[in-house]
Write a structure and sequence with these properties.
- Helix 3 runs antiparallel to helix 5.
- The chain is flat.
- Helices cover 91% and strands 0% of the residues.
- The model has no long low-confidence stretch (mean pLDDT 79).
- It is built from six helices and no strands.
- The protein starts with a helix and ends with a helix.
- By secondary structure, the protein is mainly α.
Length: 205
Amino acid sequence: MSNNSQKIYAFQEGLQMKKFLLQIKWLLHKAKPVRVNLIVNTCINLALSGLSIYLALLSKSLIDAATNADVTLVFKWIKILAMIFLCQLALRALGKYLHTYTITKLLNTLQKQLFEHLMHSKWQSQMTYHSMHLLGYLNNDATKITTLICDTLPSLITLTLTFLISSMTLLRLDTKIAFLTLLIGPIFTALSLIIRKKMKLMYHK
């Protein structure tokens, strides 16, 4: 690829990054009516992830107690496991309810804003769009934006923090396996980025 093509590609990459940041800013602005709900729901998901990791550690302790024939300790871990299961059920129920309420509220808010914008806009401006396009904005696009705000962004935060907590826990249990896992992850990530970049260059060419 020539120097001009590389400069054009770098310029386009810069524009795409700027556009991506503007889109993130716009999404955060649209999420303002349900921002508190999203934070609470993300905290619930993080708590569930933490309890799942803690359950794995408790299961190990329960197996060790059963192997050593320590009946008192076995019943102790069973009681703790039962309490954690009940907490998980309560948190999942609360998380489902809050998630459904948040999605419904945000979707209604976006559709209301779009509808009011159409109702107060000039008729000549509306004529540039087909009625099916406007209906698509009200239904499909609003739903996709709601899903992105309420599902994708919180899931990304939850998965990232869960990965960090799991890595720290694994590092505490077995250092060699933890380092091996942490080494494999970035290698696959780097390979995927290299392949993605080459595919973009080929597509651009």
